[in-house]
Structure to design on (397 residues):
């Protein structure tokens, strides 16, 4: 009866595989315990805090996934995430808002009232937002297409300089051209999807469900694309462009496709951010927040792994939020007055530690030849010698 013996206990557990679960568990524990202690056991307040936290984690994970398509799978060094983020957010806002009115408000667009095209199903609560989402993705993708033509042939570091330069130009245009999106005054009162269908006190749960659903859809879309022949070409050109070109593939075309796809995802993420925040100002779109943090999330989670990108967004934004919670304690004046710098120091130390200890991130990219082959190996019945398909799969890695 030895062939009936389970093989689970033969699978060695590597300590390195426990790093990611332990890190997520630590962040989760601190995110729950600190607010619980500071609120004197107010469970409803802790839940409200966690719902808001997870909502923005889902939004930031969308940007990280878009960056993962560009850098993690294709090797395209885009250091201008800010530009696509800003284009998507402002496009969605001016599409869904009403026309500008008043002496201190000036912006183009304002089509929200004209997009209620269906006289049923409360289309005014969701149809303008879908149009704004599609417009945001389209504008960001078009901008990426126009940018890709002259820049994608540049070497990695020169491409980074070009993308960050274009992002800064877009940011200055938003600030200086006040007739576009109201300049430094920003846009307020961005309509929220399905906002009129639930009570305002319960809307945060609906918003979390919307952001989470969109994140899952984006994740499944990217996973499907990367597991296709198209995705395998992207990973090939990331590893060796010359070999990929020698095999007959148009390297520039594939790099452009990945760049445009990633930018469109970022633009859609910007639309979701605008809906969740309900207001936009140029101060939000800094290179540190709107570019560097997303790169840090991807490096921390694991470049080339979509699950790693999501985990990186959760862990990094968790550490960032935890440092904000520390400000509620009685700290020495030397620390309290320098908490923003301490937060950046903690973030930098965390990234350096990950690069030194786990250069591939918390969840490194999984090398596999075929998902179908792995599934067949898992379904193979155990052999009389005690080895199973799982053992074969593990031994082949």
């Amino acid at each position: 009866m030895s062939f009936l013996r389970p093989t689970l206990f033969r699978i060695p557990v590597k300590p390195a595989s426990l790093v990611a679960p332990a890190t997520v568990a630590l962040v989760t524990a601190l995110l729950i315990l600190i607010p619980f202690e500071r609120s004197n056991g107010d469970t409803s307040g802790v839940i409200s805090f966690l719902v808001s936290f997870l909502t923005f984690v889902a939004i930031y994970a969308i940007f990280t996934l878009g960056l993962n398509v560009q850098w993690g799978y294709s090797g395209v060094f885009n250091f201008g995430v800010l530009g696509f983020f800003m284009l998507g957010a402002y496009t969605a806002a001016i599409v869904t808002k009403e026309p500008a009115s008043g002496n201190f408000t000036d912006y183009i667009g304002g089509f929200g009232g004209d997009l209620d095209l269906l006289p049923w199903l409360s289309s005014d609560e969701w149809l303008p937002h879908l149009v704004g989402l599609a417009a945001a993705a389209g504008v960001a993708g078009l901008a990426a297409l126009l940018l890709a033509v002259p820049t994608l042939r540049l070497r990695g570091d020169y491409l980074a300089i070009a993308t960050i330069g274009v992002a800064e130009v877009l940011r200055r245009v938003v600030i200086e051209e006040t007739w576009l999106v109201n300049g430094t005054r920003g846009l307020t009162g961005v309509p929220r999807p399905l906002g009129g269908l639930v009570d305002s006190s319960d809307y945060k749960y609906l918003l979390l469900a919307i952001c989470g659903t969109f994140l899952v859809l984006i994740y499944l879309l990217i996973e499907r694309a990367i597991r296709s022949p198209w995705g395998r070409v992207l990973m090939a050109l990331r590893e060796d462009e010359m070999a990929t070109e020698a095999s007959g593939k148009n390297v520039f075309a594939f790099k452009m496709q990945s760049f445009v796809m990633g930018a469109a995802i970022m633009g859609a993420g910007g639309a979701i951010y605008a809906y969740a925040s309900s207001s936009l100002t140029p101060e939000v779109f800094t290179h540190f927040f709107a570019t560097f943090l997303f790169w840090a999330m991807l490096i921390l989670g694991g470049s080339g792994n979509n699950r790693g990108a999501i985990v990186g967004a959760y862990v990094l934004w968790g550490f960032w939020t935890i440092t904000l919670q520390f400000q509620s304690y009685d700290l020495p004046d030397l620390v309290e007055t320098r908490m923003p710098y301490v937060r950046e120091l903690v973030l930098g130390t965390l990234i350096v530690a990950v690069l030194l200890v786990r250069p591939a991130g918390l969840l490194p990219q999984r090398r596999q030849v075929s998902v179908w082959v792995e599934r067949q190996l898992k379904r193979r019945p155990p052999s009389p010698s005690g080895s199973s398909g799982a053992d074969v799969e593990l031994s082949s890695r």
